[in-house]
Amino acid sequence: MTEDRTRGWFRGTRETTQIDLTTGAPVGVQSTRQIAGTGPHPTVQVDRDQLPELSGGDEPRTDSWAVAEAPVVRSVEQHLDLILAAAPTPDPIELAVLDAQGLLCAEHVVSDRDLPSFEQAALDGYAARSADTVGATLEDPVGLAVVGESQAGPAEPSAIGPGLAHKVAAGAMLPSGADVVVPTVWTDSGAAHVGVHAELEPGTYVRHAGEDVAVGDTAVALNTPIGPAQISLLAAVGRERVLVHPRPRIAVLSAGSELVDVGRMPGPGQVVDVNSYALAAAARDAGAEAYRSGIVPRDRRRLVELLESQLLRSDIVLIAGTFAGNGFDLVQEALAQLGEVTFAQVAMHPGPIQAFGRLGRDGVPVICIPGEPAAALVAFEVFVRPAIRLMLGKRQLFRRTVQAVSAQQLLSPLGYRQYLHGQVMRHPDGGYVVEPVGGGESGHDAALARTARANCLVVIDEDVTEVSPGGLVTVMPMLLGG
């Protein structure tokens, strides 16, 4: 089975081969019809210039922030494209090189020094003239007089002439006149006189000045991910700070009268606020700087003030909660006071009710997702994580997907794209096998303990209502930091 890089969405007809899980042998082929035109972006790269504008005429709009009598129904792709089109591009900032780890370089870093800055030995041995090694063999070594010794570190300049050698350690500065380093194992290791057992070409085991990076060379190019190797190179060329694309700032809030803080024992009908913790952690894993603001106040004036403060310091505001269908929810009213946020039904499960808008003076994107924890994490993966990666300047916005054999029957509602938390593993005969952590039926995927055991999302297309055991499904591995 090959890796699928189309986010698991296909066009046309897909041939699904069933495999006997005990032998790995194909036992039949089933043809699954796919809805034409429902596939989104054919690659995992999104060109920001090609994304639709938020005010585009094709997107259904309402004049009210409340859900209308005939709710707006969007495909997953339509809702995602709205969010990606509105994702801001934070201005580059200058950070200390260690703080820049994991970010993209926002400048061409040009070296103003040579690396290495002097001729040095590549390994332990004897610095010598290549002309003095001509004809040297194991049976007939060439003898040279040893006139000095150098270790790596500060050293006074030295020189050698014909018939002379200088003992050197790896990294030590070469004496003037030497153009080779004879490895110790190719000599008799003499102290005053050394026998050389091999003939060497000029430059052998010598690190030349500027060989790695020369003055004027690009040390780290624009949009290069900064990892340990890039940090070492930046330090080597003398850069203490570097311009980078910063981490997006994500404010995470939880809405719901049933919520209590994690330090309190929930009473009857109450549940602990886990979404603000889980979503802040997911945002950080995606590369963002997350502010966990916790449970929203139940007073509208205080809630509006809180939202206004988050809009001032955030690039995205993320709110998880169960919102009223008639539009008269406290959070919806507070959002309406600050601008327009459209609540819509998205053709996905779990969590079809989603919302999006832009509020405040700077039009900060506000994303509302379901309050049920498993559904909230699914919505984050599908809509918020790609936006964070776009804001980071990443080329690959979406997790890679693979095709896997389903270990059991999976059921899915017609017309909805189903996301199931599952466990995917390598099949002994090759490929992958996956099974949902809570069973294949809708509603069995909600338990937090089961979700915590999952290592992937199983994606079932909108027109598929059943996947038989042994059928192929699309799987999105949930690798930390991936």
Primary descriptors:
Beta-clip; 482 residues; 31 strands; Molybdopterin biosynthesis moea protein, domain 2; alpha/beta; 4 domains; Molybdenum Cofactor Biosythetic Enzyme, Chain A
List the helices and strands and how they pair.
Blueprint: E1 3-4, E2 13-19, E3 26-33, E4 73-74, H1 76-86, E5 93-96, E6 109-110, E7 120-121, E8 125-128, E9 142-150, E10 164-168, E11 180-183, E12 193-196, E13 206-207, E14 218-220, H2 228-236, E15 241-244, E16 249-255, E17 259-260, E18 271-272, H3 275-285, E19 289-295, H4 300-313, E20 316-321, H5 330-338, E21 339-346, E22 348-349, E23 353-359, E24 364-369, H6 373-391, E25 401-406, E26 410-411, E27 417-426, E28 432-436, H7 448-453, E29 456-460, E30 466-467, E31 472-477
Parallel strand pairs: 4-21, 9-10, 16-19, 16-20, 17-18, 20-24, 22-27, 25-28
Antiparallel strand pairs: 1-25, 2-3, 5-15, 6-14, 7-13, 8-10, 8-11, 9-12, 21-23, 23-24, 25-31, 26-30, 27-28, 27-29, 29-31
Helix pairs in contact: 1-6, 3-6, 4-5
Pfam families: MoCF_biosynth (PF00994), MoeA_C (PF03454), MoeA_N (PF03453)
Protein name: Molybdopterin molybdenumtransferase
EC number: 2.10.1.1
